[in-house]
Specification:
two-stranded antiparallel ribbon; mainly alpha
């Protein structure tokens, strides 16, 4: 039986090596968990390091506020910020007789 799209995505996600930027536990440092490739790419540029630092600040603030999840913006995928979608409603036109 072939795997569904969601199952394939979960397999790829599971095979990734996830870590914090420092390599220490997130509970000790308050840093975000992300795939190693993502962290390496972010650390290689100045703008990436700023983005990583901002994500860590958001994560630490959310942790202090007692939240389990922080919307720091590093992860791709679902929109978890609660922002509205920007798609327009489709309008139908009536035919003139």
């Amino acid at each position: 039986m072939a795997k569904t799209k969601q199952q394939k995505s979960l397999d790829r996600w599971t095979k990734q090596k996830w870590r914090t930027p420092s390599g220490k536990k997130s509970s000790e440092t308050g840093e975000v968990y992300a795939p190693s490739k993502t962290i390496s790419k972010l650390k290689s540029t100045k703008s990436g390091r700023k983005k990583l630092a901002a994500a860590n600040r958001k994560k630490r603030a959310a942790t202090r506020a007692g939240k389990q999840h922080a919307s720091h913006g590093l992860h791709k995928g679902k929109n978890r910020t609660g922002a509205k979608k920007t798609t327009r409603k489709r309008t139908t036109r009536r035919k003139k007789k």
